[in-house]
Amino acid sequence: MTFWRRRKPKWPSGEVRSDPFGEGRFREVPEPEAPPEEEWTDPDPEYGIHEPWENDEFTQPEGSDSGDYDREPEEGEEERPGVIRGVFFGRPARGAPDTDASQPHVVSTILSRKPGKDAARAVAATLGILAVVSALYWWGPPGFAAALPASGETVFEQGETWRLLTAIAAHADAIHLLSNAVFLTWLIYLSYGAFGPSLYPWSAVPLSAVALAVTLEGYPPNIRVVGASGMLYLLAGAWLTLYVLVERRLSVAKRIVRVVGFFLVVLVPTSIRPEVSYRAHAIGLFFGVCLGLAYFLARRDTIREGERWEWD
Predict the structure, then answer these.
(1) How far apart are CA 312 and CA 2, in angstroms?
(2) pTM
């Protein structure tokens, strides 16, 4: 806001003027039509030295948060301050400024929080089931152990579909079990901690059985399959897909680079062994990517509500 103030020039001393009520000394103030642009320094013989108007203009630096808040907004102008600093949860609020002085960015997502005790219990329960079923497969009665693996003949011809679940829990030997348990511990802990039981086990385990059935379709009927490798790759595919879609603290390029690096280092085998079902790995990874996309689309609003935004 601008305030104009005019200083009255001093009337030369010793001059007497008359008024309707008698003589008296007084000072006259000239009334210029507009403030002069330049200061006059030469003395005026009649009125003395002219003192220019003073411009008391209260200005503010560009980008500051002070302003004419008592001024009525003009037509088409948004009623908002120049700079907003704050924290918002969920999606950005409407009316948030979109200027260079205040750019929103995500500071935390549902992947930022530390998994709780429920995630650790889910890991312990899963590893316990794998260990018990694998021990029964190794040392159990011959008839019981033979009922655990899955093959095209037993599943499709004899209709023993429950083998699609028992085959995931049974493992060929201790090395096979430990190698899968290491990665399953990490994947289950993160997946359950971020997304809860809706992703694992209620979505991942049934879909792993379906992926195993698709795997058996490509093998001869007498080939038996055991192990949780297919479920491991399915969880990895789902987690990596959700990481790219959810973790918006980083740019898309950085997220993709991290996912590709993890895939090349961890999921790509360094050697080919004939007893390993790489077909199950590939099919499990494909189903995991599909699961991650479907899960994100189904729960997108809930996932976005877990974000925390800040404006600088």
Answers:
(1) 30
(2) 0.69
